[in-house]
Design brief:
By secondary structure, the chain is α+β, with helices and mostly antiparallel strands. It has two domains: about 1-100, no CATH class; about 110-275, Glutaredoxin (3-Layer(aba) Sandwich), CATH 3.40.30.10. About 60% of the residues lie in helices and about 10% in strands. The protein has twelve helices and five strands. The chain has helices at about 1-20, 35-55, 65-75, 75-105, 105-110, 135-150, 170-180, 185-195, 205-210, 215-225, 225-245, 265-275, and strands at about 115-120, 125-130, 155-160, 250-255, 255-260. It has a five-stranded mixed sheet, with helices on both faces. Helix 6 runs antiparallel to helix 8 (about 185-195) and helix 7 packs parallel to helix 9 (about 205-210). The longest helix has 29 residues, at about 75-105. The chain is elongated.
Length: about 290
């Protein structure tokens, strides 16, 4: 009898795991710990088994136990919702730890690369990194916010990393961008011009933007395919691969990798948190 119960319980655990995967929910407040949830589910299962034994006695059909437990748990969705939250919290914590390890490994390449494009205060107390592609619509969406942060926050350092992944035109524009930065041009003006233009951004568009800020387009075109420019792009790809970054824009601040078009308010909150507690999320941050 006990052996049959154990076998049935093993099957029920598999049913429970499948149900949890299908019932992930998002809640605004932290839930109980994974250990608390495991204890809660274990107690619920034991309670249900005891009830079945009292009802059916020694003749209980253990083959139906998994179905009985599944029905019970699905009839009490709060248990599954709490467990799904705990598992999601656990998963996010594991991902955050992986990000911290990866960021530590690539710290020098991220922050001290000689090809870095630096806006704002080079000695700023907080650094915001953005990996971008000139043909990325979501990058276009955030460019005004990023440039506004540079203007409004005198202690912010912004590092822009060319990460062209969308087209050959993106690669060519990134090569021009590296040359613009190397020649000491007004990169902020160049950056804004390319994101405010219409159509695909390619070598011609980037060279025209460089010329508009007073640089020699012919000299840039001559140097844009040099080995050191290629190496600079390759370092960005290596960072992205090491950090698991596959899209643009992607922001890096502190120990956090933030994918997607994060708005100005959210970036401002994270910057303030870095100053307050050294993390992008402080204990008192809602």
């Amino acid at each position: 009898m006990q052996k049959s119960l154990n076998l049935a319980l093993t099957g029920a655990v598999a049913v429970l795991a499948a149900a949890v995967v299908g019932l992930f929910v998002t809640r605004p407040a932290p839930g109980p710990s994974p250990d608390d949830i495991r204890a809660l589910v274990s107690e619920a299962v034991e309670t249900r088994i005891a009830a079945l034994e009292r009802h059916q006695g020694d003749t209980m059909d253990t083959a139906s136990l998994g179905t009985e437990i599944e029905s019970y748990l699905l009839g009490n969705p709060g248990i599954l919702e709490d467990m799904s939250l705990a598992l999601e919290t656990e998963r996010r914590a594991a991902q955050a730890q992986e990000a911290r390890v990866a960021l530590a490994r690539f710290e020098d390449q991220i922050y001290n690369d000689p090809a870095n494009i630096v806006l704002g205060n080079p000695q700023g107390d907080v650094t915001l990194v953005e990996m971008f592609d000139y043909n990325c619509g979501y990058c276009r969406r955030v460019v005004a916010d990023v440039l506004a942060l540079v203007e409004e926050d005198p202690n912010l350092r912004v590092i822009l990393k060319e990460f062209p992944i969308l087209s050959e035109g993106s690669v060519a524009a990134a090569r021009v961008g590296i040359m613009v930065n190397r020649q000491g041009g007004d990169y902020k003006a160049f950056h804004a011009a390319l994101f405010s233009g219409r159509g695909t951004v390619d070598a011609n568009a980037a060279l025209a933007a460089a010329e508009n800020i007073g640089l020699d387009a012919s000299a840039i075109e001559t140097g844009m395919n040099s080995g050191d420019v290629t190496a600079a792009l390759q370092r960005s790809y290596q960072i992205a691969q090491g950090l698991g970054i596959s899209g643009t824009p992607t922001f890096i601040i502190g120990d956090e990798i933030i994918p997607g078009a994060v708005d100005k308010a959210e970036l401002t909150r994270r910057i303030a948190n870095m100053r307050a507690c050294g993390e992008t999320v402080c204990n008192t941050d809602g």
